[in-house]
Design a protein that fits this description.
The protein is mainly β and 164 residues long. Helix content is 11%, strand content 41%. It has helices at 44-47, 100-103, 125-134; strands at 3-13, 16-26, 50-55, 60-65, 80-85, 89-95, 111-115, 118-119, 140-146, 153-158. The longest helix has 10 residues, at 125-134.
């Protein structure tokens, strides 16, 4: 299963234009993303720009433009999709093809136990994701990697703008 990151220049929702959203083009044939009856999913890249209110009784969702409705979304600059793993690590759930992590040899299911010398337990998952997304392109980041059957090693990746 592969998802290719792309920039959607404009989405109109109820008369409000949301610009420069990062999305993904899914090329797999399994999972809910492969449903032929679904054109797209609206995720946090769009919904995060609104104040979302649910009227459960009326079965209605209201979207009110928030302060960030016109901000440009930045895609992760490491080329990693990380999830929390047991034992104080982050597990690599996906690697962006041709991205910095893939070029450095990072693979799906690798475990990251430290980033730039800081143990993973020192921050929450969303903070590590922000760390890798918000540092400038060309910044070098050192990942301490555990891989099944191999000794821990440090890998240096150079962050890049993957979705201009």
């Amino acid at each position: 299963m592969t998802t290719w990151p792309v920039r959607v220049h404009e989405i109109a929702i109820g008369g409000v234009s949301v610009r420069d959203v990062v999305g993904g083009l899914f090329s797999g044939d399994k999972s809910v993303l492969a449903d032929p009856d679904v054109s797209a999913f609206i995720g946090t890249g769009v919904l995060g720009r609104f104040v979302v209110t649910f009227d459960y009784a009326g079965r209605t969702m209201y979207l009110e433009p928030g302060a960030s409705v016109s901000e440009r979304e930045i895609y992760d600059r490491s080329g990693l999709y990380l999830i929390r793993a047991h034992g104080g690590a982050l597990r690599v759930a996906a690697v962006t093809p041709t991205g910095p992590a893939e070029r450095a040899g990072v693979r799906v299911d690798d475990r990251i136990t430290a980033i730039d010398g800081a143990r993973i337990e020192t921050r929450r998952l969303w903070q590590w994701r922000a760390y890798l997304r918000e540092h400038a392109p060309a910044t070098k980041v050192v990942l301490r990697i555990e891989r099944a059957g191999a000794a821990q090693r440090d890998v240096t990746i150079q962050l890049a703008e993957l979705v201009p």
